[in-house]
Amino acid sequence: MENTKRKFDVSSAGLHILAMLFMLSDHAWATIAQSQEWMTCVGRIAFPIFAFLIAEGYHHTGNFKKYILRMLVFALISEIPFNLMYGGSVIYPYHQNVLWTFIIALLGIRLVDWVKEKGRLWLTVLVAAAVIAVGTLLGFLCMTDYYGFGVLMVFLFHFFRGRRWWCFLGQLAGMYFLNMELMGGYCYIVDIFGRETEIMQQSFALLALIPIWLYRGRQGHHSKAFKYFCYAFYPAHILLLVLISSL
């Protein structure tokens, strides 16, 4: 029975690889394959998986200071490649890479947990509400990737963490609200059985819940080399795509 279950689960390492491939598809579309619209649709799946992994990583890290410092270092390393891809110049102050989005969310989560450790429920609820509001505002003010919506998505997977029915329902409702109601975006007109139907591009992000829900806590392959590969992949693949697009 255990072997049968393992066939249908996705490990943490597997989620990282899937997210990186989906992200590569989206960034390839943005740089070298802009005529391939399907690639950005596939790319919509990447961010929710990363947001889930960030929330999960927070709960599994043995040293939060090292975790956030590592994120900060790679956020700084990623700035120039991201600026080149997004703004076409080394300095582009109008949009920041996604690691800053995750840093805002992680600091907010840590603050809520620090207050929670004091054992006062009313204060924890109050601080959580304030953190959600301020974190979302910072995402917009700092113009990080996915803006405040990205910060909210990390909070969503943190506050609805678990495999109970209400966690799945909260994730589904939150993902729908964030991607369909708040983020919205470009729509495709498709013909389904002779009837024209609108499909929102951002709706593909909800497909991320499939691999996320197939995750049952199994870590999978784990090594320091793999961990740093996952961090380095973000600036490295962006820089490579920018170089290819400039040829």
Brief rundown of the structure:
With 247 residues, the chain is mainly α. It has helices at residues 2-6, 12-31, 37-43, 46-60, 64-86, 98-116, 121-141, 147-159, 165-183, 209-213, 224-246; strands at 187-192, 195-200.
Rg measurement, Å: 19 Å
Give the uncertain stretches in residue-range form.
none
Q: In what range is the share of β-strand residues? A: under 5%
Q: Numbering strands along the chain, what is their spatial order in the largest sheet?
A: 1-2
Mean pLDDT: 94
The biggest sheet, with number of strands, parallel, antiparallel or mixed sense and barrel status, is:
2 strands, antiparallel
Q: Structural class of the helices, strands and pairings?
A: mainly alpha
In total, the number of strands is 2
Shape: globular
The helix-strand sequence is HHHHHHHHHEEHH
Distance between the termini: 53 Å
Helix content: 55-70%
Number of helices: 11
Task: Chart the SSEs and their pairings.
Layout: H1 2-6, H2 12-31, H3 37-43, H4 46-60, H5 64-86, H6 98-116, H7 121-141, H8 147-159, H9 165-183, E1 187-192, E2 195-200, H10 209-213, H11 224-246
Antiparallel strand pairs: 1-2
Helix pairs in contact: 2-3, 2-4, 2-11, 4-8, 5-6, 5-11, 6-7, 6-8, 7-8, 8-9
What are the defining features of this structure?
69% helix, 247 residues, 11 helices, mainly alpha, globular, two-stranded antiparallel ribbon
Protein model, in words:
The chain has eleven helices and two strands. With about 250 residues, it is mainly alpha-helical. It has a two-stranded antiparallel ribbon. Helix 2 (about 10-30) runs antiparallel to helix 3 and helix 6 (about 100-115) runs antiparallel to helix 7. The radius of gyration is 19 Å and the shape is globular. The protein starts with a helix and ends with a helix. The model has no long low-confidence stretch (mean pLDDT about 95).
